[in-house]
Amino acid sequence: MSPSSQQPAHHGPGAAAPAPSLPELLLIKPCLGPPASPAAPNPQTHPRDKWSKKMDFLLSVVGFAVDLGNVWRFPYICYQNGGGAFLIPYTLMAVFGGVPLFYMELALGQFHRTGAIPIWKRICPIFKGIGFAICIIGLYVSFYYNTIIAWALYYFYSSFSGTLPWASCDNPWNTPDCTNYFGKSNVTWTNFSRSPAEEFYTRKVLEIQKSGGLYDIGGIRWQLLLCLFLIFTIVYFSLWKGVKTSGKVVWVTATLPYVVLLILLIRGATLPGAWRGVVFYLRPDWGKLLSTVWVDAAAQIFFSLGPGFGVLLALASYNHFHNNCYRDALVTSAVNCLTSFLSGFVIFTVLGYMAEMRDVEVEDVARDKGPSLLFITYPEAIANMVGSTFFAIIFFLMMITLGLDSTFGGLEAVITAVMDEYPQVLAGRRELFVLGLITVCFLGSLSTLTYGGAYVVKLLEEFGAGCSILAVVLLETIAVSWFYGIQRFSHDVKAMLGFTPGLFWKLCWVAISPALLAFIVISSLLDQPPLTLFEYQYPEWSISVGFLIGASSFICIPLYMVYKLVWTPGSLKQRLAVCIRPEKLMRDPQAEGVGMAPVL
Questions:
Q1: DSSP of 207-260, one letter per residue?
Q2: 177 labeled binding residue
Q3: Mean pLDDT of 181-186
Q4: Is 402 marked as a binding-site residue?
Q5: Please, what is the Cα angle at 154 between 76 and 441, to 5 degrees?
Q6: CB atoms within 10 A of CB 573
Q7: 405 is an annotated ligand-binding site residue
Q8: Which of 77-86, 194-203, 582-591 is most confident?
């Protein structure tokens, strides 16, 4: 029988069931037998969508995981933390932290076939606040991430010209500090010099000179408003019908970046000085292994693979029950890490070329990080290549597609979570709900479209999904491994795949991955460097606002715990027993007489 025609096995009275989790042993006693895992959900009134093809799912996962951060964050962190030496902690953190959690989320979503909010009823009800926190974090990310895509769209439109507008200093927005050294001799580059690409980004695209900082962010840039409106229009019509439409769109948005990366890599390798960039990128600095490189490697792999955002749960929930999510996890996470590594060559061949042209060290050229690397450094090099218009068009098209499929994943996580939590209200109204969500995201993004919008983007990027998402992943891992129980979870995986996860995966889920996450969260909270952008020092009050933004999502978890305990009847011990026990066990008739009962 094919996987699509098989039904999930319900764990009846005769089924060999896993041992209870430790918290259950402390709070509840056996009734008539060992506890069963919650049965896979029964067919609903409105049948759940399924991916049309397996590749639709794989491309959606790859598209979400491979985003703009792979192109701008990984290369910068790699050279900053010892070049080739960085690959050692990066690989170890991927093997022991990122990939196990990636696998866990795919398995959870596929088994329970529901979104990030209602899934906790079947795992550990008291942790349901995690689902609400994930949705709030998803909204914060949408408020700034789509604005970055809108910047790329503005560049894409501006690239359709014979001479790129950031190729010279002869434009109305340029200042006396503008220095164009390409194709010229005896040009002195000083600390006050600004390239044409930098002035185009700051003074033309952002018009940040019209803002006095976060105190005075100014009015809205109507050109960026139109770009963002177009981006959200594309997002809406890609998501409004569910995975049937988004699964088709990702065939373009997830594959096109690889074609462009390959073209840019070949072009970059033929530039003079490219080898200098590659040597700088990969030259190992073994002394860095004794520094904070381990924290940076762990943070990079967790943010890159994206466990905790609810996206993997949502996308996997539309799989067939017996789909091999174990193989999917290994393949897609490997593709993600290799893409990051490949992006480093694409970026650093060009940085080596720029260093050759400026007659400076690669280190002096490679100071830009984050969006500046994509909107200043790389466009500057493209402007001085043969065929600059063509390379600019495909580069910014790549950036748009990289951003779009990550947005698809992030918003699909929110859509799936909320619609599965409130099916009585939202069933059959997906188009209207998605329209409302997109409208909220658009309105929430307006402050990032102002003259000082880049300052708001930086603030949201630092605090909207920083420590809060790592703390959410930590609690999610603890809830599944310690409260739901690793044996019960392994039993669920065996029901889907026919084999139990090995000892390595169990050790990672129970101890190693939570320890790594706790290490990153504590290190991040203890080490808070000053926040700056374009030489603007963020005021103290803005940092406080940032912490409030981060706390506003995480606070959902303890608040829901208190709510659940207060509204559950019984003594405190009985309440705890009910709140940590999967609700499906109590409701499922097949589990009657074989579950656990509270101590009375």
A1: -GGG--BTTB--SB-HHHHHHHHHHHHHHHHHHTTTHHHHHHHHHHHTTHHHHH
A2: no
A3: 63
A4: yes
A5: 85
A6: 14
A7: yes
A8: 194-203
Whole-angstrom Cα distance, residue 416 to residue 42?
A: 17
291 appears as a binding residue in the annotation = no
- Pick the closest to residue 47 from 182, 302, 244, 324 (CA basis): 244
Task: Note the helical H segments in 445-539.
Answer: 453-463, 467-478, 486-497, 503-507, 513-526
Q: Is 174 assigned a ligand-binding role in the annotation?
A: no
Q: Is the dihedral of CA 114, 336, 465, 409 positive or negative?
A: negative
Whole-number Å distance between alpha carbons of 437 and 443: 10
What secondary structure letter does DSSP report for 3?
G
304 known member of a binding site: yes
Tens digit of each residue's pLDDT (9 = 90 or more) over 73-122: 888 788 777 777 888 888 888 999 889 999 999 999 999 999 899 999 99
Q: Is 403 annotated as a binding residue?
A: no
- Whole-angstrom distance, CA of residue 401 vs CA of residue 395: 10
Range with the lowest mean pLDDT among 56-65, 72-81, 254-263, 424-433? 72-81
DSSP for 144-181, written as a single string: HHHHHHHHHHHHHHHTSSSS-TTS-S-STT--TTB---
pLDDT tens for each residue of 461-475:
888 887 888 899 999
> What's the one-letter identity of residue 568?
T
Note the pTM of the prediction, 2 decimals: 0.86
Give the rounded distance of the alpha carbon of 599 from its chain centre. 42
Specify the residue for token string 């169990």.
506
Rounded percentage of the chain residues whose pLDDT exceeds 90: 42
Q: Which two tokens stand for residue 404?
A: 């779009």
- Which of 45, 19, 23 minimizes the C-alpha distance to 33? 19
pLDDT at 4: 41
323 has binding-site annotation: no
Nearest to 541 by CA among 277, 243, 214, 176: 214
- Residue 65 labelled as part of a binding site: yes
437 is written with which tokens? Answer: 């969500």
pLDDT over 80 (residue 185)? no
What is the maximum span of the chain, computed from C-alpha positions, in angstroms? 88
pLDDT in tens, 133-176: 999 999 999 999 999 999 999 999 999 988 899 988 888 988 88
pLDDT at 379 over 70: yes
Amino acid type, 429: R
Measure CA 423 to chain center: 26
Q: Would the pLDDT of 434 be above 80?
A: yes
**Hunting for tokens 């096109």 — which residue is that?**
256
Q: What spatial distance separates the first Cα and last Cα of the chain, rounded to whole Å?
A: 46
Q: What b/e readout covers 127-142, taking b as 16+ CB neighbours within 10 angstroms? A: bbbbbbbbbbbbbbbb
| Contact of 404 with 263, CB cutoff 8 Å | no
The structure tokens listed for 555 are 């606070």
